[in-house]
Structure formats: C-alpha cells, structure tokens
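Before any further analysis, backbone shapes were mapped to integers, which produced the following:

***
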Amino acid sequence: MIINKIQNTHFSESEEVILRYILSQSEAIEPMTIQDIANATYTSAPLLVRISKKLGYKGWSDFKKAFLEELHYMFQSQDIDATIPFVEEDDAVTIANNILTLHSETAEDTRKLLKHDELNKAINLLSEADVIDVYAKACYEYTGRLFQNKMQTINKNVLMMSDPILQAAMSTSKHAAIVVSYSGETTRMVKVAHMLKERQTPIVAITSISQSELSHLADAILHISSREMLNTKIADFASTESINCLFDILYAGIFAKDYNKNLDYKLTIAENIDDSFSEYAFIDEDNSKL
C-alpha cells in the first residue's frame, strides 16, 4: 500500500511537508495540478516528481493516479473492519457473524479486483509450465499446500520447498512461479523474484493493490483484497481468505483447460484411494445409491 511505503521511506524535511499535505487533503488533490500542490506547500514541482520516483513511480502523474485509486478503493464501504473485525465486548455469536461477513466481503472484494487479461495470462503461464513453484511466507504456506494437493490430483507437478532461496536457485524457464506477498515488498520474496527473473521463470504475483517491487517484476498479477493493515491486525483473516480464493480460481482455471481429461483422472484416482464413509447419505455416493 502507498501509505505503508511512505512510512517506510526516508524523505527530506521539504518532502515530508508535501506528503503531510497530500495525506491530509486525500481525495481533494484530484483536481489539483503539480504546481497547485507546490504552491500550497511553498515548495517546488521537481520535489513532487522526486517523491514520486522515490516511491517507485515514473513521475507525479503516475503517483497521483495510483494514490487516488488506492483512496477510492479504501473508502468503499464495508460492514466489517478487516483489521479489527471484532472488539472485546462482542459475544461469541457476534464474533462468528463478523468473521463470516468478513469472509463474504473479502471474496466479493477479490472478485472485483480480478482483471480478465491478467487472470487468463496467469492460468496460461501455469498450465504450460512443466513445474509450478509456490513461494510464500510462513503465514500463507498452508494456502499454498492446499493448492499443491489439489493440483496433484490432476497430475500437475507443484513444488513448495521450506527454503525458497534454494528453490528459486533451482528454477528454470520450464518452471512457472507463484509468489505470494501481501505487501509485495517482503525482502525474501523480492529476492526470490529477482532470482526467478534471472532464470527466465515466469512469475505470477499474488499481492496487494500497491505498485510494489514484486508487482514490477511479475509477468501476471492477481490482487489480494487489500483492506488489512500490515501491523495492527488481529489476524490474517481477510488476506488468507483472499489468497485461498485466488488459489482456488487458478486451480479451477487450469482444470478447465482440459476439463474431461482432468475430471476422468481425478475420479479414477478417487476410486482407488478414497475409503471415506458417511452416515449422511447426501454426501456419500455409495449410500445415496441405496
């Protein structure tokens, strides 16, 4: 997120004056020119350009566009705060309702952030790869493992090693990588992405809406619902749900590329290994036939 990037970047005193003005005015800067803001802060237009470049943008126009888009996104109404979805006074039922509502809102938010061309590009890159490598921080590793298990049931080779640096060092152009980072600036994940670029491995980034270093390195970008604060959240409720949604969408998209073959393979494997049984006839195929 741009605000988080601002907080983690060093600026001169004059630059900080400009940034305080921009943050305080928020959407009110939309009709303002670069010279308007320079005049309002008693600074100069080149300083605004320098700030934009420090934050990873080509210039003021690119920064302003991204900043306003992020504000518009963050100001969209949501019933539940993704960072603090419940408070001390809430009882168990209220907490349950809030968490379930958050999951529903997060899934809808993830849907709205999907872009047709980026999604198709990601599915094609992963479908064509001999091996799919998944890279994620420990807090998101479980979601990657679920994706790996699903993909193995349609005979797709997905790797997720405990050492992402070693995994990246072993990658080739015949691999495709999914790199998961909420901020897009996680030191280890950015290093992995640079290593993958050197090895000509296509990268699908699962990350927030910010113009991060990971986003700039990726070949396709899928955006996570980006309403969770990095450091003040109770837990990764929203980001984990969003990442799960995206992994499921990727699995379904790859499955659909060769639907009948994948369905036949999956059912054949299930017949040979699945000895599950349920007294609930509706979900038990054997009982439901009685």
Summary: The domain at 2-74 is CATH 1.10.10.10 (Arc Repressor Mutant, subunit A).
